[in-house]
Specification:
223 residues, alpha/beta, Rossmann fold, DNA polymerase, domain 1, 2 domains, six-stranded parallel sheet, two-stranded antiparallel ribbon, 10 helices, 8 strands, 13% strand, HAD family hydrolase, PGP-like_dom2, phosphoglycolate phosphatase activity, HAD-like_sf
Length: 223
């Protein structure tokens, strides 16, 4: 049972980490390895970008009609550590966002649609498993309301993500939805989906969190 009042969850891909180039490169290599055909027409950043954030099998089915989705997915996961991982970069403001939560006595969760082993290797490669940054909970293989179920169990009050699926997760859990427009979906799209606030990136999160906590404090005093 959670013991901290403040619990904040984060999505991974395109929220904490710019993983688009690594995903595209690995998808292309998996397609070529399995089918023996050209991958550049089917798998390129332009076609893949709008699909970032969705579960892997859904991305494969959309990009590569008629393929054996499970075989491509298995091949992708085997290739990712050597093909995609080194292409990832940390998005602006991650360290500052985690620090702001910890300074407020809170817990940090990372909940992703990516497979859980992949979440761990991505976080580790970018230094986010070091003691001062390591999330209190790491979970993978969840999208949309499946993320929301875990957020609810953990007592999360805030969920941060770049995707409308992340907005759905927050709303399911009754948490404040903080969108970041670092992914394929615009601030307008995130707002229309129900995000409570949309930031340009995580550099704006500490200031938002401070104001949010101050508002909660005033509300409690008023009650």
């Amino acid at each position: 049972m959670p013991t901290h009042e403040l619990v904040v969850g984060f999505d991974l891909d395109m929220t904490l980490v710019d993983s688009a180039d690594g995903i595209v490169a690995t998808l292309a290599q998996a397609h070529q390895q399995v089918t023996g055909g050209r991958s550049d027409v089917l798998v390129n950043r332009e076609r893949a970008w709008p699909l970032m954030g969705y579960p892997l099998e859904g991305i494969i089915a959309e990009l590569m009609p008629g393929v054996d989705v499970e075989l491509i997915a298995t091949t992708y996961r085997a290739l990712y550590p050597t093909t995609g991982l080194h292409r990832n970069t940390l998005l602006p403001g991650v360290h500052e966002a985690f620090a702001a939560i910890r300074e407020a006595g809170g817990r940090v969760l990372v909940i992703s649609a990516k497979s859980e082993p992949a979440v761990h290797i991505v976080l580790g490669a970018l230094g986010l498993l070091e003691d001062k940054y390591r999330p209190d909970l790491i979970a993978g293989g969840r999208f949309g309301t499946a993320k929301g179920e875990l957020l609810e169990v953990e007592g999360a009050g805030v969920y941060v993500g770049d995707h409308i699926g992340d907005v759905a997760a927050a709303r399911f859990a009754g948490a404040t939805s903080v969108g970041v427009s670092t992914g394929p979906q615009s601030a307008a799209e995130l707002t229309a989906a129900g995000a409570d606030v949309v930031l340009d990136d995580l550099l704006g999160f500490p200031g938002w969190l401070s104001a949010h906590l101050a508002g909660l404090s005033r509300s409690h005093v008023g009650n």
